Amino acid sequence: MKKFVLLSVVALSLAACQTADQNAVLGGVTGAAVGAAVSSPSDRTTGALIGAAVGVAASTLIGPAPQRGQCYYRDANGNRFIAAC
Questions:
Q1: What is the model's pTM?
Q2: Whole-angstrom Cα distance, residue 49 to residue 25?
C-alpha cells in the first residue's frame, strides 16, 4: 500500500507544471525515496542513490516546455501537448 501511495504522489507531482530546477530536485528526491522504499534493508543507500539518479534523468527528459509560460501536459489518452501554465 505504501508503494502505491508513493507512486501516486510521484505521478501527480510530475503532471504539475514546474520549472526545470524544480523538476530536477523533485525527480531526485522522489527517485531517492522510491529507490530506498523498494530496496532491501541492507541496500537502502544504494537504492536511494540509483533512484535519485534515475529521477533526475527522468525529470530532465520530461522537463518543462521550451518556451517560458508554457508547460507540457498529458491528456486522458496519454497524448502530450503544450499549453499555458
A1: 0.53
A2: 13
